[in-house]
Amino acid sequence: MFQVRFHGRGGQGVVTAAEMLAVAAFLEGRHAQAFPSFGSERTGAPVVSFCRIDDREIRVREPVSEPNALIIQDPTLLHQVDVFAGLRRDGYMLINSEHSFDELGVGEFARRFRRERMLTVPAGELARRSVGRPMPNAALLGGFAALSHVVSLKAVQAAIHEAFSGAVADGNAEAARQAYDAVNAQLRLLKEPTDA
Amino acid sequence: MPNSPHLLPAADLDPAHLRTTRQIEGSAAVAEAVALCRPEVIAAYPISPQTHIVEGLSRLVKTGRLTPCEYLNVESEFAAMSAAIGSSATGARTYTATASQGLLFMVEAVYNASGLGLPIVMTVANRAIGAPINIWNDHSDSMSQRDSGWIQLYARTNQEAIDLHIQAFRIAEELSLPVMVCMDGFILTHAVEQVDLPSQADVDAFLPPYEPRQVLDPADPVSIGAMVGPEAFTEVRYLAHAKQMQALELIPQIGREFAERFGRDSGALVHPYRIEDADTIVVALGSVLGTIEDVVDEQRAEGHNVGALGIGSFRPFPLAAVREALQNAQRVVILEKALAVGIGGIVAMDVRSALAGIQLKGYTVIAGLGGRPITKKSLHALLEDAVADKLEHLTFLDLDQKLVDAELERQRTTRRSGPQAENILRDIGTVAARSH
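YS: structure for the whole thing
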């Protein structure tokens, strides 16, 4: 089982993100379960959603407390909500930001995990350019596909087209591709030997 | 090709398997399932967490996908059930849905629907009852209608919610009794997971057009709902009970017919899980059974002989099936998502009736109230305590005893101690409810 927790704010499509990831996994023959943190969501308030992916039927209904991956849609949450709670030692984390973990003030935390699994990607900015609105959710899923290989970019784009239509779907699918490429570029840099 | 150490290699991105299965929200799935049953009247008032279901149905009616069907926007839940009674009495297949305070608001009409023998099907998207206001899941709402004369079926998964709605119309119309399909609010209604939606042709073959036992027809006038005095009221009530006893036969029979046609075993009075040699059996209703089954498997792997028993039909209560399933256990843990204030368990009382004369240890556990997550970790600890017979007879899972004691102390020492819910929120440092 692979468990993902999404953190963002009301209005950023946090619930839709988990649902699109579940659809992407489903399209590749997996079982998946997406659900929101149940509450009175308000625009701007911290929101959490979850997605479980497995090769067999998922029966458990508890919230995800020890995620394999964290997707953080709004970096301003980093110092406001305990977004890191329970992240597994071999876990992945993708933050919507153009800044590094050190610049975000969480470098020390990120260094406790595997370097190639902790990345930031400017998903909101990519979406602003291709969709016209800085909605980071779809783009982050593209980046997540590159980071984790749990789903393919193709499946993510198909899920985006199920959730949206027309230019919004096309723009989000394009933002997802760009985030996918951006994450892959960072991963290639990490693999290259560094000159001291 | 995606490849993760956590999962097997992915399938090709081929929509072939999508011909029968879809990955959709529970509410959307229920709306589709209800539409497949061809209701002719839907009267509903939105309330969270039921809203997505009736919104989905109103879209299906408006776009003409569900036709002929009249969708009534009513001004309250009381009006919703009243309109449902009227339409059902004219012989129209009728559906509504509600939750929580909405169900309470319609209660007078809820009793009338069953007393009149009208086969309305209603989804209850289970949610807590205030005060204090709480929009999250538990079973307080439908449990409050335990004695309303409606059949109550509880879904464990969204697939089962789909299947039970289709069976509910059959059961309701064969018996001329209303049926509540109870599904956990948010946990199921808002979960996006894989479901198999049957074809219209299969549902049509399974569920024939409604043929009423009684109908308001100007060409052939009758009275429905006349006053009945002491000379016959007991007999009419006896018949209500007799019909529910008939349902004990009918529910599994229709469940078997459904399984033959659709290949899924969802309609049953009880759902035993690994109970054959179990010393300890957890009894529960609804979606928590999935988590419990995982915990049972993990406990079994550690060598503990535990099992689970899901109650599929709470009304009628299957005394004989529950007795048969539990009689060889040493202890029974009844996990309830509702509280009968002043006594404790609700399901527990019925389970105890089923076990009359059998010596075994019984524990009532109140869990998941107002949306508190029921975690595997807490269930493991609970089962370990149960197996060691260290449980209190009435236990509140994950109760913060210190918090409660502080408020009790405040009330003991201060006359004007203030509103207790707000005191507790202040003690834990929030002004509004935390979201889970």
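YS: worth flagging: Chain B has three domains: 15-262, 270-396, 411-436.
IM: good catch. Also Chain B touches chain A at residues 1-4, 6-8, 10-13, 15, 17-18, 23, 25, 49, 135-137, 184, 186-187, 190-194, 287-288, 290-291, 293-294, 371, 373-376, 433-436 (CB under 8 Å).
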